[in-house]
Specification:
With 339 residues, the protein is of the alpha/beta class. It contains 9 helices and 14 strands. It binds 3-methyl-2-ureido-butyric acid.
């Protein structure tokens, strides 16, 4: 029998042609009395450093302009709304947009949005390297509670202060990539990433404020960072995309926030991770063409998804248990039974 020819290695097309140098721009704590202008100044400092390192896109945290105010119960909505933005960019935030244009660096920014008709959202925007807003996302999965729970050491009142997002999970073409956005708790929900990857997403940006302790149930502290890595890496792998996740970190108004900002690549591996709990930039070259392998093979959705079996995903929220009682199954014939 003639020897079998070695399989020809397919040439890799467009190798290293689409690189987006990106950064997770982690912020250390922002105090209750810190001004937006001060937070913006810190972000611009990072942008300047990003420029020196060849960064073209930066991701800032969730609610990046103020302290994480849902930790306090406030009855007076005037007090609450002091943490919200009525326009974007406001005069305080405009310098960040100008820096983006000057340095040619696009960014993701999380903030509390108050609309003209009085709606409150936990929002992020995608701003391109010319300083223009190209996309907006409003957080869908709001964690926490809506009433004061005095037994907790601090509150998590996102369900009180925000409405669930009403924009779904769009994606946008910008800066040579297909971008999607999510915010904090969204990362724990695989549907979020699948919605975006069904639109071909290549880069998902996500900001977060995650306390280092679970105040609703007892849980070892180390799990907070473990679960962060776990869901972000799984999302990157199962959707063959990059995930840039950026924390607000450190002790903020007495509450510890996990850091661990990271960039995960389509293999699910972490390519860069924060070392500190302060202002820190984590940089990586995103090879956008590296998202194709997974999208064309094991996660080729058009070939492999079986939507006829997925109706519960959109038709049901809570768990519906099977009927009570153990299923008996058919009797198995015994080897020792008389013939
Ligand atoms: N800001 C958040 O959404 N925080 C949640 C906490 C409350 C668990 C998170 O998922 O990290």
């Amino acid at each position: 029998m003639p020897p079998r020819a070695a399989p020809q290695e397919k040439p890799r097309e467009n190798q290293l042609t689409r690189i987006l140098t990106a950064a997770a721009a982690q912020l250390g704590p922002i105090g209750r009395n810190e001004t937006r202008a001060s937070a913006v100044k810190r972000m611009i400092q990072m942008m300047r450093r990003g420029k020196e390192r060849g960064v073209r896109y930066m991701v800032f945290p969730e609610l990046a302009l103020t302290t994480f105010f849902p930790r306090w119960y406030m009855e007076d909505w005037k007090e609450v709304e002091r943490f919200f933005e009525r326009q974007m960019p406001s005069a305080d935030v405009l310098p960040l947009f100008e820096a983006a244009r000057e340095y040619g660096i696009g960014f993701y920014l999380g903030y509390a949005e108050l609309t003209d008709d009085g709606q409150h959202f936990n929002t992020s925007i995608l701003v391109n390297d010319k300083g223009r807003i190209v996309g907006k996302y409003r957080k869908v999965h709001l964690p926490g509670h809506s009433e004061h729970e005095p037994q907790r050491p601090w509150q998590h009142l996102e369900k009180r202060y925000f409405q669930p997002g009403d924009l779904g999970f769009p994606v946008w073409r910008s800066m040579g990539a297909i971008h999607g956005m999510a915010i904090c708790n969204d990362r724990r929900w695989p549907e979020v990433f699948r919605e975006m990857s069904l639109q071909g997403v290549e880069v998902v940006s996500l900001g977060y404020n995650t306390p280092d302790e679970n105040t609703s149930a007892s849980e070892p502290k180390h799990l907070r960072n473990f679960h962060n890595d776990l869901v972000l890496q799984a999302a990157a792998y199962q959707n063959s995309c990059y995930v840039i996740a950026t924390a607000k970190a450190g002790i903020e108004e007495g509450v510890g926030l996990i850091g661990g900002s990271l960039i995960a690549q389509p293999s699910g591996e972490i390519v860069a991770k924060a070392q500190t709990l302060g202002d820190e930039m984590v940089v990586a070259d995103l090879n956008l063409d590296a998202t194709r392998m997974g999208k064309e093979t094991i996660f080729n959705f058009a070939r492999h998804r079986r939507i006829e079996h997925y109706s519960r995903i959109t038709g049901q929220t809570g768990v519906v248990l099977p009927p009570e009682g153990e299923v008996q199954g058919d009797p198995v014939p015994s080897r020792h039974a008389p013939a």
